[in-house]
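User: Let's play a game. I give you a shape written as tokens, and you guess the letters that built it. Ready? Here's round one.
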């Protein structure tokens, strides 16, 4: 069977970053030892990484919350060899003084040039 496939549409990683669907955190991740271009989804950023004013008044910062996310990503990756995605949880202080524990996925796949890239996301972003 010799069928030809016609590409109807494509959406590149660079387009997703330009549109704000993905947020490139490569520079911050590389400061913490990550070697791959790294992005988080806008949903993860808005829901858990960017603290509200109330959380800022409670001592929370974007940098600290991102550090926690990247540390847990690193630990999950260290404990899961030979796979392209890991599943883990991170504790984030919430406005009531309790903790949210979202499930997180870190996936390594091909970038626009087929180079390995990492995307950190919530399950609904997958």
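Assistant: Ready! My guess for every position:
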């Amino acid at each position: 069977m010799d069928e030809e496939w016609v590409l109807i549409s494509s959406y590149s990683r660079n387009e997703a970053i330009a549109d704000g669907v993905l947020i490139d955190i490569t520079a911050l991740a590389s400061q913490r030892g990550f070697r791959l271009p790294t992005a988080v989804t806008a949903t993860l950023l808005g829901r858990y990484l960017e603290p509200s004013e109330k959380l800022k008044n409670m001592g929370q910062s974007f940098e600290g919350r991102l550090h926690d996310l990247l540390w847990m990503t690193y630990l999950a990756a260290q404990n899961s060899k030979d796979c392209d995605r890991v599943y883990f949880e991170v504790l984030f202080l919430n406005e009531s003084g309790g903790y949210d524990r979202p499930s997180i996925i870190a996936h390594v796949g091909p970038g626009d040039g087929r180079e390995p890239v990492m995307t950190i996301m919530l399950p609904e972003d997958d």
